[in-house]
Amino acid sequence: MTSLGSRGYRGIPYIFFRFPTVSYHAVATFSALAIHQFAALATVIGVIDPVLLPGGSDGHTTNGATTTLPSTSRPSAPADSPPTRPARRFTKTDVASWTASGFAPQRDANETRSQYEDRLTHVSRKVPLAEACTKLGISVPKSANLERLREELAKHWQKEAQPIASTAVTSSGRFPAASRAPFPASSNTPFTAPTNTSSAAATSRAAAAALNTHSTAASDTVLLRRYDVDRANVYELLGYEDDGVDEDEGEDEQVNKGPEDMEEFRRGVRVAAVQRTEGNRHPGGLKTQQAMVKAWNEFTLKTIQAKKIPDAIVDEHSLLMYINFCAERPKRTRKGVDIPGTFIGASHLKKLFFGALRIRKEQDAGDPSLAHRRPASSVIAYDSIKTRMDEALVHERNGLTPEEDAPDIRANTWLSQVKDEDLTKIGFAFLSHRQLRLAIWGHLAWTAQHASGNRGDDFRALKLAELQPTTLLHPNKRTEIYSVINPVYSVFIANLKPEMCPLGAFAFYFHYIYDEKKIIETMKLDYKVNKSWRMIHVLHGQTSPTTPFNEQNMYSLYSNAYKRAGFSSRLKAHLPRHLLGYKQESMGVDPLETSKLGWVRGQTYMDTYAPALPKKAILGAAGYHSDEPYDPIWRKIRVPEQFLLLVCPMAEEMREKVAGAEHLSGAFNQWEMAIELREHFFQCGGAIWQLCPESSIFRLPAFQNTDIRNWMTTGYPSALSVLQAAAGSPIDLRRIENEALHDTLASMRDILEVKEILNRRTAVLTPARGFSASTYHRNGTSISQLSISSLLILIFFQRSRRQLSTMMSPMTDVFPAIQQPDMCWEVWGPKKTLDQFESIQAIWNIYSIGERVSRDDGPIQMKPPLKLVELFFQHHWRTSTSKQERQRFGKVWERFRKIPEWIDHQSTIRRVPSEVVMSELEALRMVEGGTVPRGINWLRTELATQHKAVCSVIFLHYQPSL
């Protein structure tokens, strides 16, 4: 609701007032009848509380505002109204007595509020009233006008007449019951109106304050959180940033702020916050809310007259009545004419319901006590709207509406797909628009919405400064894709089809605004100052680039394109968004990826810092699978250099002006993008020339060049044909790839089969695999004195013959076949230190028998005995190219061989089995009285000490003979 004021024309004052959806311009004198008609209308629709009018109960509160109008002498009222109060006349003596008493209410004389207001109206100077406010302790700003002073004094009279009830606890231990404000009087109540200008101004302000509460709006999420609905998300408020550039302005100095004035101040802050929230909403949401307020006013006008609801407050009773009213009323045309035999749909019912809740939210801001006195949210209300919505869906789907047929069974389902031929015709219809501006606007909106998944109203909100170039990395982590992005991560990349490429559409747009309309000279833009071009909308109105493209014009643009294409759809500007899921499904994109397309705000990290781009969905919208290479063929067509300079020739100069400047990187990138899109301009233009040469976009200045038209006619199609022939048909390429892959797999299968057979038959010949542990029987006889050849033969004779033995070669033939013995240590050498072995038996087995090679399912083979390896290869199997490695191998072998050679030597000279020697060594490891044996490394040291002692005795024994 806009402000309500008064003007004068040739001495005749008139009133200008506008309701949320329709304006009324009335010129009339301030007669009693004119004011009576205006007040009656405002009272009936419920936007002005009757208490604000003469005759209403004093002190009544509506929407949190308590107002009483001053009263003076009134002319005669209409015949159907009661007799008016005669005008009072005051003398100078009366005025002097008032001044002496400080204009205090005359309680002794039983002065009513109306009489007190008459006295105040008679005073025409601010000074005495301001002094009276100071004496009475009323806090008013110094800039308060005469009318404000009168209102404050009248409030003081009301406060003195009706003191606030005490909230102390009663003797019974309970709080006193809160007094319930009476319902306002019926709209039929006769009344009279004041005639002076001051009273009219007060009435104007009261009406404006009441009407303003119905025009503001709040988001659905805040309403759902406020009125107890599950899906709430009010934390998006935290995502907004503080620029830190605003400064508070000075306020009027106030003194002696009282409780009542503070309450009014709080109320004003709440209402101002709601109004600011309204201004921060999307323009489309504001327009929708205006329609919702209009519907609510229509409902209250009828129901208040029928005395079904007391006033315009949104409470449970009025909500239930409103839901029934909306569910039973017919549909209307865009001009507001009823369509008999129809009913509104479930989606419209939902909008009307939430629109009423928004109105209630603003009423709560004006009077918080409404939440307790007259609650709006309840289970009954929500069940009622759900039931009505279900009934509307059933009526529509089953064809129960008298004058409407049931919709197509595939409508609004994933089966309701649009053919590619229809989409192509619609695209050509946009290009065929007779107006150049609308042809560019329509082509840009159609291609960009298909690429980003935005709705029409979202794209209308896009601003020119929000378009920034970037490089998108393909999901294969190798291919870099040039793209245009906006701050909330809607990405536009080159499409598979040049006629559907959004980058080409943006190139047409830049050429139009900079070269055709010369927006820089027209608006005197200075790209060194960000705010000079920051408010320009991509789709803007015809008169001002800072005005968004009208929603109705957008609707008409789509409707005309559908009509020319012979296509029928209930959805107009939202159709690309509706088709997005079907197209993405055909491209194999996950629905979760598709849901991330479009402009979504609310998460600071995802909106500002993290490039959370749904790359698979972006590629799918451009016609590419994520697993195929991204390489549009038409982008390889070479454009002559002289053609490029015809599009935005000032771009290089503008780029140099802002290059390197602080806070101007966005402007620099903007012109960098204009330069990069020049090739897209001619490549996409050449493709459209082949399909739709009568398009209005060819009236652009660059396309008027004869050489360019000749190139688009002959050069472009020939270059494209060569590239397509070189690239080949995707189907033929897939067939060739399949045949080659089939042959390769067959060859690999044959090779693997041969390799498997070879590995199975030669597995025992490799150093990594030895003899079979399951077929080996250990021999307890000492064989240390046998020759190497007889020892090898003996070992093989002791082995039981198995299937594998039929193809095993004698070891005398295997060892000589090894040409690189230096590699044997890594395979056959001991892998553990001495202390890591469990027993002396384990060391002896590796030395004399061989180490087992095991898998998860058990032992499978054995390595050759290290004793035989050392006898045959000597030190050559312990060599290495590195000197340090050779030294390490030597130390490990010297430590390892000490114990098994001692066992072998003792077994030979004493002619006892090796088990006897090993048992003696195990006994040597045990400590007297202990349970844990010493380590094997200690045993090696002990044997070395004993060996040295024996050698010393022998040396001393033979020394005399020397």
From TrEMBL:
Top-level taxon in the UniProt lineage: Eukaryota
Biased composition, class Basic and acidic residues, residue ranges: 254-263
Compositionally biased spans, kind Low complexity: 174-198
Segments of skewed composition (Polar residues): 59-75, 164-173
Ranges where the record places region Disordered: 58-89, 164-198, 240-263
Ranges of compositional bias, category Acidic residues: 240-253
Span of domain Ndc10: 490-707
InterPro entries: Ndc10_dom2_sf, NDC10_II
GO molecular-function terms, A-Z: DNA binding
Protein's name in the database: Ndc10 domain-containing protein
Native organism: Mycena rosella
